[in-house]
Amino acid sequence: MTNWPERSLWARVERWFHAPVPAVRLGAFRALVCAVALYDVLLWAPVVLTDAAAVSDGGPLRPWTPILLFQLLGIGPIPLPTAQLVQTITVAALGAGALGFGSRLACAVGAIGCLYWSGLGYSFGKPHHDKVALAFAVSALPFARVGAAVSIDALLRRWRGRALVPDATVAALPIRLTQFSLAMGYCGAGSAKLLLGGPEWFNGYTLQGIMLGHDGDWSRTFAASVELCRLQSIGVVGVQVLFPLLFVWPRLRWFFLPAATAFHLLTWKTMDTGPYMRLWLLLWAFVPLERIPGALARALRHGPLTAVAVLVPVLAYAALVGVVAANVIPLWVLAGVGALLVAVVVRAVRTAS
């Protein structure tokens, strides 16, 4: 009897992490996570391959300070040919995972490769917190039915007469784990400012000093007023600390997701942090992705003003993603992916209409 409350609590936690979601939502999320992980691998490729080339040449090397997992497993630096092989396998696996071909196996290989690739970069440099949510997301994909829909696997099953019913549901583990890691990351960052920085963090001068110290494109504009910096400090910490409210009232995503995205874009331009695109793309974990085509179809039917009001932000967002991704992904690949995505969305919108 004494263990019953613990079992009950664990059962509730387990039900929450494995809550049923439409298979289409998980399939779209799988494609998103694999695409983000692929972007991350290519983003870090110059760093990892440069270190591997130095290993092949016999040095000099940057200091090798392995992350804890590498210490426990006894993993050391690798030469350039090995690094190139790891990159090829990882890119191929993540590409297959994004398309949903051999989904779970591809995601498993891609996850191992992505984590190993990141570990090599971190062990020769220093860890960054912007890949925490991605690490959880990509690691969880192989443990769910990620190929049940929105995948080549699903098309092959349909041709064989083994397709799922339209309203089929699957366990939401990868989505839930990503949501949880994002919420805890934001809440932890905001709580640290409150507990460690205290009231002085909100005096305006702290944020102003950070911005002017980095002198980004927009630093002087947003740091021009101490009062404005005070308001920004309150807004940033408020969004971060209160972010877990999304689990209580999901409709708050209409505020928190744009606010978090704007926060990352502003820190990029005022503090030179980089775009942090991995984080704000994974915020789509809080969105019921299967409802997007229907929402677009309704907006297009509602009239030209509504259609423009919806399509302009969507196209601007897509353009931003394309501009950031173009720094590491060839334009012909982006063009092909964009064309495929447009075709899928257009077909989904027509179906929803």
Short description:
With 353 residues, this protein is mostly helical. It is 71% helix and 2% strand.
Written overview of the protein:
The protein starts with a helix and ends with a helix. It has helices at residues 4-17, 23-57, 68-73, 80-99, 103-123, 132-140, 152-159, 173-197, 205-214, 219-222, 226-242, 253-271, 277-282, 292-302, 304-325, 331-352, and strands at 20-22, 169-171. The protein contains 16 helices and 2 strands. Strands 1-2 form a two-stranded antiparallel sheet. Helix 2 crosses helix 5 (103-123), helix 6 (132-140) packs antiparallel against helix 8 and helix 14 (292-302) crosses helix 15 (304-325). It is mostly helical. 71% of the residues lie in helices and 2% in strands.
Going across the biggest sheet, name each strand in turn.
1-2
What is the radius of gyration computed over CA atoms, rounded to a whole number of angstroms? 22 Å
Tell me, briefly, the overall form: globular
| Mean pLDDT over all positions | 92
The helix-strand sequence is: HEHHHHHHEHHHHHHHHH
Total number of helices? 16
Percent in strands: under 5%
* Largest sheet descriptor: 2 strands, antiparallel
Helix content: over 70%
Write down how many β-strands occur, each being a DSSP E stretch of 2 or more residues: 2
Q: Which structural category fits the helices and strands? A: mainly alpha
N-C termini distance: 54 Å
The low-pLDDT segments are: none
